[in-house]
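Replying to the earlier thread about multi-chain prediction with a worked example.

Input:
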Amino acid sequence: MGFIEVKDLKVHYPIRGGVLNTIQDYVKAVDGINLSIESGKTYGLVGESGSGKTTIGKTIIGLEKATSGDIYYEDQLVTNRARSRQKKYAAYNKDVQMIFQDATSSMNPKKRILDVVAEPMRNYFDYTPEEVKRKVVDLLEIVGMNAEAMYKYPHEFSGGQRQRIGVARAVASDPKLIIADEPTSALDLSVQAQVLNFMRRIQKEYNLSYLFISHDLGVVQHMSDDIAIMHKGRFVEQGSKNAVYNNPQHIYTKRLLSAIPDMDPTTRAAHKVERQRVEAEYDAQETEYYDPDGRVYDLQEFGDNHLVALKPEEPNASLQNEKVKTGGER
Amino acid sequence: MAVERSLLEVNNLETGFRFGEVYHNAVDGVSLTLKNNEILAIVGESGCGKSTLATSIMGLHDPKNTQIKGEVLYKDLNLLDLNEKLYNRIRGNDIGMIFQDPLGSLNPLMTIFNQISESLEYHSDLNEEQRKERVLELLNQVGIPRPEMIMKAYPHELSGGMRQRVVIAIALANKPPIIIADEPTTALDVTIQAQILDLMVDIQDETGSGIILITHDLGVVAETADRVAVMYAGQVVEEATVEELFANPLHPYTRSLLNSIPHELEADDDELHVIHGTVPSLQKLPRKGCRFAPRIPWIKEEAHEEDPVLHEVSPNHKVRCTCWKHFHFEGEEK
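Result:
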């Protein structure tokens, strides 16, 4: 059991139209997902743009409203309560923090770094100004920045430094879970390496959990213990990193993994053949993996800590053995 | 095989931006050649000058605030000497360009047909009927389904991948011998990225044109390029065939970059390689000595050249400065 349990979460947005502006249909951004978050672990959430991964993160922290489903924080029901500002939800608000993709727009440009980082502390703890200052210095040190940074403004830093300040701010309220939404997508390779290293160090130091949302499979593989692959608002595959990466079962997972560029130019041709084979298989087998409405099936137990969304009545073995002809068309 | 003549030759190109009264070079002495039938990748991190290099070749800089020196030789012409009118005959006809953001390079008020046909109208004497035929052919070539329908659509009606295909179709319209692609897949999802890269390689096989592919993504380089130039702080620091570069990277910057790619962790306290310090800003960039030296301070000063140049260390492999011979990662023995 995790300290945060997400049960059958759905986030639907109405599409309005017609003469009377009535609700015509819904966009099912998140359509029934379950997630259990244990302390000290990193959960990778992978999917292409529009798959609903960011919506999950935002709903857990309370920036989006859940249409149905429950979120439990230490057995307390907290769905859609995060912004209620009631005292009984204060612990939940304090313990779940977020790191955004664009660090620049997530910081008030008129505030000094001292105030940016101190804000969560001032909200939840009764520290004296001296204590706040000392703690900010400590936090900045953890992300590899010196104390002088405190009196500067966000625009005075580079992208990588700002993202590290974002990490320091998220840790300031001493949280248990940090939701990191594409934290390094805007950064260069060498800067990304630095931010990821700091995130891992902090995790060990504070026994943090991360919900690591990214479209970059390499980064997620580097950071995560468990991984969920998302498509069309649902999980197509969920489980340990090892199971999902080395023994993918769902055609969408296979397609995503085969599309990652290979770092070895000598096997380029073979990789391309394999990628196009999987792509053809994906086109041919769509009905095997999606129901007639194009919805992803419910997750089923496939192995130890490995869930796959497979067609219910079909036995797993026959799916694996089925050979698919590669069509001539692309 | 006969010695191939190079398609495009860039000699000692310098592009400086004006800061007050002084010009600071964002591209600082780059020499490259592009051959027929070849994909040349230019790779580097933001601010290394790779996009400035592309826009300099295309002559897209405002002459009031930029100073471009050197030569860009194409068919015995130095493109940098051309006036705007002559340059316009080259752009789109001899050199096609693909930009990163397809939405930004398409006109939201024009149908797909009109956007592609615009370039045909300008550079060829095809009549309306022939242009229509050519546009259909192009849309088929870039793998757009139902081209007759899509032709009448507006950019906002297409997905990101489809828009990038349209941009590629525009670049290909006049069968240019040279295509410059600036981060063509950076804004796209991995599966779409794979499709677009396949498409570019296929087109290159079909048409035999030379492609300059500008990217920050080493994976994209490994998947598509024939030759690679690695840029740091406005200079090419290493140039090699793609197999050679990945099998035997020599320059400290290339090695550091390859080492900071996220990978599966072997041990729990495994960390990614971080390059010491930051990229200097244009104004503060030291113009003398090895530009990468401040980022590898544990390497002795004597290891660097006073005025580093590209040395040919083996056929098809050039490295700038001599520091690579003495380089080892921090905390590691040489």
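Chain A has two domains: 39-65+76-224, 236-330.

Feel free to reuse this layout for your own posts.
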